[in-house]
Structures are given as C-alpha cells and as structure tokens.
Design goal:
Blueprint (H helix, E strand, L loop, with lengths): L1 H4 L4 H4 L9 H4 L2 H10 L18 E4 L29 E4 L1 H8 L38 E4 L2 E4 L4 H9 L5 H22 L5 H12 L6 H8 L1
Antiparallel strand pairs: 1-2, 3-4
Length: 222
Amino acid sequence: MSTAYSRAPRSYEKGKKLFEFEPGIYAHETVKQALLEAQHGKCAFCESKFAHISYGDVEHFRPKAEWRQAEGAPSGRPGYYWLAYEWTNLFLACTLCNQQFKKNLFPLRTPALRARSHKQDETAEDPLLLDPAVDDPESFISFREEVPYAVGGNARGEETIRVLGLRRETLAEQRRKHLSLVNALRRLITLRDPEATKARKLLQDMQQDRGEYASMTRACLR
C-alpha cells in the first residue's frame, strides 16, 4: 500500500487535493456484517444495540479525509488516507455517535506528533480518544448509576466522554431503563425469590461483552 501512495502527487500530501475513497470497499455489506458480529451488535462507542432501527455507519477511528483537533477548529489535511481500508481503523457506530458527535474529530495530547502521511508512524501518536479495539475502556471510564465519568479524572476518559457525547440525555434515558431492570433482578436474588436462579443467570448474561451497556452493568454490580 505504501508503494501505491508513494506515487501520489505532492499536492495530495500537502492537503491541497483530497484523495478519493471507495465506500463500496470499506462499507461493503460483508464488512458491516463482520463488524456487527465482532461488536455483538453494539455501537463501538455508546454500547447501544441499534440494528433494529438503523444500519449504522462504518466509522474510521482515524479520519480518512481530514481531521480536527477540537470542535470548531479548522480541518487539517490530509487525513489518514492510508488507513481508509485498514480493518484495525474501522468500527461500526450508531449514526448519532458518528455523525452528530465524533465526525472527523481526532484530538491528540501532543498535536505535533500527528502522522501526516503514510511515511510516518501513526502508532507514535498519543490520541485522547479511547480505541475500543486496543484500550480497555473500563480502565478509563466508569459509571455512577447511568452517568459516565473519567476514572481518577483521567484526560482520555474525559475527552472520550465529551467528544462522543456519552452524557447526552437521550442515551442516559436508555441507560436508566436498563438499570431499572438490573436493579429489579438484584432484588429478586436478595429476596431469595423462586425466580432467583433465572435472575442470576440474566444478570450474568448482561455483564458479558455481548450485553447492551455491559460496562455500566458491571460498574453497577461491583
């Protein structure tokens, strides 16, 4: 791939021209299905299950065309064009997380480290957004009831919550509904109800990665 990009005119590398990308490759139905299965049918960012109401978006963690360091900041070019078709840079996200919040935001702790072409190593960057495939989100973000917070006030957790809108009220409403079920099951177990065995099994399932809002559920039950 680097050989192909080495033939690209300098005007592309300087951001004067934009690379053309083929959505039929990175957003092909087989790619979306593979991502959906790998992510247990959940948005990579908010953990909501959305397949019953939306097809979702194939999201480039490192934006392919152009990027912004912060909301309202000017766009920088080129984007991470050499990662446009890389599996490790692709996630499936709900439309709201992708189009309303993350968009082309990709803040770095040290902007000077940003890779600006395929000749540079993007793994040397220090991104503020958590990578769901690399980082353990629960080491950075936990929950007080339905409200997410950055563990120990860490910068990456706080920036991820802010950029992705993880405190938005519509999402909090769905989390509250989920927590009401979690708490009802907990009461059944505490009261030694005849249905306690079923309740315990449901709670175990809800804590698995495949469960909707599993991170919040685990935090609630700890």
